[in-house]
Amino acid sequence: MSLVNCKINLGLNIIRKRPDGYHDLQTVFYPVNNFTDHIFLENVPQDFEFVCRSAQDVGPDEANLCVKAFRLLQRDYGIQGVRLTLDKQIPTGAGLGGGSADAAFTLKLLAEHFNLPVDNRILKHYAAQLGSDVPFFIDNTPVYATGRGEIMTPVDLDLSLYNIYIIKPDIFVSTREAYAGVRPHESDLNFADVVRDVPVHEWKNCLFNDFEESVFQLHPQLEGIKQKFYDDGALYAAMSGSGSAVFGIFPKQP
């Protein structure tokens, strides 16, 4: 069994649209355990089975990133005879990277189960074929992400002295919807420098999420959640990724 965590974005700056249709950006990915999925692996006589237990609509099995992760390793290593069961709790359409996390942890679980000759570098190669932020969950440590989000540099950041609260309302924000309203611009700030050198209580003066302006116009409830976090004493609050989860970082009380 593998316990799968999600992530939050500490700031997200959309810099420019690229000729290939993607966007250059900068952000900091930070792993959190507020929501977790579980992946179970069992031996079966058949080639492969996939079971998803979820109250959410996660689409057809063959489109699931866990299945795609298995197929990649099966193609190169001939693995077979397992059932993957995904107990899905991380909300979809939240900006928390739940699907990407499931894919990465599936790769790691299968590599360990079959004792495959792969290290994290090789696993990241497979992860990159599944999505820009999937490689983040291989090492699962804070990183400064640039490019499409696939260029990752480790960041020395520890928020264990704080409480991180996440609210995911019953609102779905599609990535397409979020990007349609964003206005790219290049910031003078390097978010890696900010989270490393600036105290957390000053992040609200430095970090920003470019998706918030347009997404908050469409879904004012999300802006209300962010403001409520600040009203309740958050040092920093923001929408994660393209939404719709909003998080607040609070000092730990005695």
General description of the model:
The chain is an alpha+beta fold and about 250 residues long. Helix content is about 30%, strand content about 30%. It is globular and about 55 Å long. The model has no long low-confidence stretch (mean pLDDT about 95).
Task: Provide the number of structural domains.
Answer: 2
The counted number of beta strands is 9
CATH topology of the largest domain: Ribosomal Protein S5, domain 2
Question: Cα-atom Rg, whole angstroms?
Answer: 18 Å
Instruction: Report the order of strands and helices.
Output: EEEHEHHHEEEHHHHEE
Estimated share of beta-strand residues: 25-35%
Helical content class: 25-40%
Distance separating the two termini = 34 Å
**What is the number of helices?**
8
Low-confidence stretches: none
Q: How would you characterize the largest beta sheet?
A: 6 strands, mixed
CATH hierarchy, class of the largest domain:
Alpha Beta
Q: Per CATH, which architecture of the largest domain?
A: 2-Layer Sandwich
Mean pLDDT, all residues: 94
Decide which structural class fits the backbone. Answer: alpha+beta
Helix and strand layout, with pairings?
Blueprint: E1 2-17, E2 23-43, E3 48-53, H1 65-77, E4 82-87, H2 98-113, H3 120-128, H4 136-139, E5 143-146, E6 151-154, E7 162-167, H5 175-181, H6 191-197, H7 212-218, H8 220-231, E8 236-239, E9 246-251
Parallel strand pairs: 3-4
Antiparallel strand pairs: 1-2, 2-4, 2-5, 5-6, 7-9, 8-9
Record keyword descriptors for this entry.
alpha+beta; 3-stranded antiparallel β-sheet; 9 strands; 6-stranded mixed β-sheet; 254 residues; 2 domains; 30% helix; Alpha-Beta Plaits; Ribosomal Protein S5, domain 2
